[in-house]
């Protein structure tokens, strides 16, 4: 009985069918805690999305995509700035795009804020569309996508919507104590840089990001960077990864 009450209370969301609500609904229905008959609903919901997926104009460009992964405070943003400066890539932080969206008063704002505060992962449809919009609006073919994909679903949604695979996947490998220390010291006014949320973000990192990192390791695309040291020391470990592509095929 409880299951059917839950379905009934979700029906207004289904009817209104805006993309943000659908994305949220998709997440609720596919969450392990859901009481709903998951397989059947997953099928229905994914059918709703297939109509929204058009061929991306990005497929026409000669893209060079790098995913930059690592736990909270592992130095992704800092090193991306150095890669931009040295190799002329465009830095696109998924977390920043979401933070920008949440102050823009969009219909997704409240959902994004709650998800970030909980250290959880925003539904892929929302994040990938923000990334897509940004990529399409920038006249450069070298993109550093920082903090994404954070789980297997993110990865598959990117492949499906953007229709591209990364050329490079950087992973900043950093001990947990160091990551926690950096996050709690950075003082950038983020709602999620506090002890309680960092603990949750780390749990999500181990459970959801690591499978993505392992996937790219098996594909031979992963470059693991030891993320302890000064910013310059770490960049000297990053530099050869991109230098090798400078005179390569792309
Ligand atoms: N986030 C998300 N999907 C993404 C990127 C970020 O849901 O693709 C959310 C998630 O809640 C995460 C937060 O934004 O904890 C901050 O992400 P960011 O990459 O800025 O920070 P990091 O955790 O790497 O320090
Ligand atoms: Mg960051």
From TrEMBL:
This protein's source sits in the domain of life called Eukaryota
Query: Which keywords describe this protein according to UniProt?
Result: ATP-binding, Cytoplasm, Kinase, Nucleotide-binding, Nucleus, Pyrimidine biosynthesis, Transferase
One BP annotation, GO = 'de novo' pyrimidine nucleobase biosynthetic process
Q: Which InterPro entries match?
A: Adenylat/UMP-CMP_kin, Adenylat_kinase_CS, P-loop_NTPase, UMP_CMP_kinase
PROSITE patterns (alphabetical): ADENYLATE_KINASE
Q: Which reaction is recorded as catalysed by this protein?
A: UMP + ATP = UDP + ADP
Q: Name one Pfam family in it.
A: ADK
- Does this UniProt record's set of keywords contain Transferase? yes
Q: Which NCBIfam families match?
A: UMP_CMP_kin_fam
Q: Which family does it belong to?
A: Belongs to the adenylate kinase family.
User: What is the designated name of this protein?
Assistant: adenylate kinase
Its gene? LOC116205376
């Amino acid at each position: 009985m409880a299951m059917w009450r839950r379905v009934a209370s979700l029906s207004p969301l289904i009817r209104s069918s805006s993309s943000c609500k659908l994305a949220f609904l998709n997440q609720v229905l596919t969450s392990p805690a859901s009481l709903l008959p998951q397989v059947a609903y997953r099928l229905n919901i994914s059918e709703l999305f297939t109509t929204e997926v058009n061929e991306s104009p990005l497929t026409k460009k000669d893209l060079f995509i790098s995913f930059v992964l690592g736990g909270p405070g592992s130095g992704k943003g800092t090193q991306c700035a150095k890669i931009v400066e040295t190799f002329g890539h465009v830095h696109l932080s998924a977390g920043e795009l979401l933070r920008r969206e949440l102050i823009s008063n969009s219909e997704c704002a409240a959902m994004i804020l709650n998800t970030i505060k909980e250290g959880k992962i925003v539904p892929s449809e929302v994040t990938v569309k923000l990334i897509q919009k940004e990529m399409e609006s920038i006249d450069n073919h070298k993109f550093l996508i920082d903090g994404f994909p954070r789980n297997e679903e993110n990865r598959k949604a990117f492949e499906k919507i953007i229709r591209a695979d990364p050329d490079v996947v950087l992973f900043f490998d950093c001990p947990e104590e160091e990551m926690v220390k950096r996050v709690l010291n950075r003082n950038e006014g983020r709602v999620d840089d506090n002890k309680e949320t960092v603990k949750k973000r780390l749990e999500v990192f181990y459970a959801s990001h690591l499978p993505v990192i392992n996937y790219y390791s098996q594909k031979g695309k992963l470059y693991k960077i030891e993320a302890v040291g000064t910013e310059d020391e770490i960049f000297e470990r990053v530099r050869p990864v991109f230098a090798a592509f400078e005179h390569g095929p792309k």
